[in-house]
Design brief:
- 2 copies of one chain form a homodimer.
- Chain A contains 11 helices and 28 strands.
- In chain A, strand 6 and strand 7 form a beta hairpin.
- The first copy, chain A, is an alpha/beta fold.
- In chain A, helix 1 runs parallel beside helix 9 and helix 5 packs antiparallel against helix 6.
- Chain A is about 35% helix and about 25% strand.
- Chain A has 2 domains: about 140 residues, FAD/NAD(P)-binding domain (3-Layer(bba) Sandwich), CATH 3.50.50.60; about 200 residues, FAD/NAD(P)-binding domain (3-Layer(bba) Sandwich).
- In chain A, the strands form 9 sheets. Chain A has a 6-stranded mixed β-sheet with strand order 5-2-1-9-22-21. Chain A has a 5-stranded parallel β-sheet with strand order 11-18-12-13-14.
- Chains A, B: This is NADH:ubiquinone reductase (non-electrogenic).
- Chains A, B: It comes from Geoanaerobacter pelophilus.
- Chains A, B: It catalyses: a quinone + NADH + H(+) = a quinol + NAD(+).
Amino acid sequence: MKRVVVVGMGFGGVRAARELAGQGVEVVLVDRNNYHLFQPLLYQVATAGLEQESIAYPIRAMVRGLPRTRFILAEVTAIDLNGKTIETSSGPISYDYLVVGAGSVTNYFGNQELARHAFDLKRLADGEQLRNHVLTSFERAVAETDPEARKALMTFVIVGGGPTGVEFAGALIELVHFVLSKDYPELNAREARIMLVEAADRLLMAFPEKLSTYAVNKLRTMGVEVLFNRKVTSASATAVELDGVTTIATRTLFWSAGVCAAPLAALLGVEQGPGGRIPVQPDLSLKDHPEVFVIGDMAFLKQDGAALPMVAPVAMQMGIHVAKTILAREWGRPVQPFRYHDKGSMATIGRSAAVATTHGLNLRGYPAWLAWLLLHLYYLIGFRNRILVLLNWGWYYWFHERQVRLITDHEG
Amino acid sequence: MKRVVVVGMGFGGVRAARELAGQGVEVVLVDRNNYHLFQPLLYQVATAGLEQESIAYPIRAMVRGLPRTRFILAEVTAIDLNGKTIETSSGPISYDYLVVGAGSVTNYFGNQELARHAFDLKRLADGEQLRNHVLTSFERAVAETDPEARKALMTFVIVGGGPTGVEFAGALIELVHFVLSKDYPELNAREARIMLVEAADRLLMAFPEKLSTYAVNKLRTMGVEVLFNRKVTSASATAVELDGVTTIATRTLFWSAGVCAAPLAALLGVEQGPGGRIPVQPDLSLKDHPEVFVIGDMAFLKQDGAALPMVAPVAMQMGIHVAKTILAREWGRPVQPFRYHDKGSMATIGRSAAVATTHGLNLRGYPAWLAWLLLHLYYLIGFRNRILVLLNWGWYYWFHERQVRLITDHEG
């Protein structure tokens, strides 16, 4: 029986595994974590809205229901394409087919200073770490007697006007105005500044312009300062600099202005494309290695002249496609080139406010928010997790309360 | 207006705060964490049954509803009894009345080796750390080819037959047999050994003997090896030694064989009693300092010839009593000596199995388990937390499933 090894249990890897299981191949899943992370909700962990356990699902719980499938918790250390073997921290694993989808990491474009001082949201621990930092900043602000230092503690600079930046900015200002303002009567919550810095001249580039306009107006109404055509050029522990001229005193820089392929991509030993991504053939396989596939954020493929975006729906469709391709080859059936079907984009801004665009239909406000909510619940893995998330959302919606405001680790 | 400073937001501190608020005094609460921890359920975090967020409650959420009460997140560094001031990491705080209830820490009786290698369950982070370790041990066991080493990874030695040891042993073996046996089909779950080592000749000393017998029989039926009259005398990273003779290869030593007063007790500068506890007057105040009170695990007080136990009900009653004493003094009313009303004890062993003793009534099995469950839900702070815990318990009860089996941090 042929063995398919899937590296990376993100959106793509999970779909590939489900599609392959029980279809006459042996499936081996490899990840360095023992859970699948629902990354799109990580910003809600960072803003005390969700506990981290509700957006992670144990891979072994999933594997139980998949025939001829096993999971290996391991870090991949080398890939031998000619020997058809991967080396891992748990020993070597040989394969007949290899599917690599290890996702992306934050791209600081080589700026070590930014990398050192900025927070980001990619791994599960990032959410809790950022939440601890935000809450600790308010605790320190209470104890701070110097007004300038207090203001810096309550200033949050968010870089990048994509969905992550917009969602985090909206969730953070709601946390401050609805929740922390009541927790810290000693502080004036209106003193808190949340700045969203975007290098281009609009937010949410992937959306139609009128939805971008709605988003910026909504954020500004909520109190977020949105800055266009500005770049954060350097950072220290106590300040960031805009365009090398304006200095903003802050203790919190959040970076969502770029991603690149995870370092694992380099192990494939092939020439990497833009952002370190791996150029793939139309069927998502490697040139000269039709038995090796790359999916998700790691794969670089152009469609209709533009590179496919690094988003979850692309990864999911790629995972399913690769599984079907492998099975088609095994069964001697013809394989199809991959084609991404863009079902649209959505981003939430705040309570009852979101934007969504799908098949030429543009939604905003409450309908978009409801659609966002239902779709995220649908894609979340695990029934218990859905209930937990729904419970937390309901609590916030009706009581304006986010209860996960715990400082679970102390900053030095 | 007189200022009452309460140090420590455990069971005692929280009750004192609630009792004092709005009674004509200013209340200042101090804790180094921003949450109240419901410690009795920490072992369920360690055994993947509960997420840590469901057993912690933000102190500021509680303080919102308490008039003339504020919270300061700070570590206490010194106590000046004559100057009526405490020094903290957030600056000095003067008081008219001081209530100190900073709880207890694990007592390794000076054995540094044990302290270095053993796990315990006192702080919130301990639960997640132990869960990560248990799950990582199983992951390593899967990858381990040497049968002896694999057996050591699946051997868990629990020291101390009190409620914590019994509850953890029961919850751990159920995790292994009901949940992990399905997660790790590669392993033989029956190979897992869970040993409970007690220095005396029975478990649960605080209970009537027939309940102790029920507990040991139940644990043995579940597969726990219970050893009496044995002591763990030394430990390394790979083994523990019993009575200096028998060596057991294990990677997991859990210590619940003793507690002593938290180091903060020494800051009071008075002579400490057994286990570092602070001897108090019948009204729980310090000798020569009637304005300073010590409550909970930190207080040493004899009643009917025996020292009061270091358990949550004592702390809660002391917290309420001290608050009433302070208010009585302010109002010029007579104060009463503290008297602990023992309402009984309970400990859960497993699914539908517990022991409870109250006012001469002894319960075991399902009725005791139901009583345990309802009482713990009742004392848990926060309605949302109660729903979360109930949801997790229901899930486990009906589906034999514990979903928080996440390895959220990697061991070196």
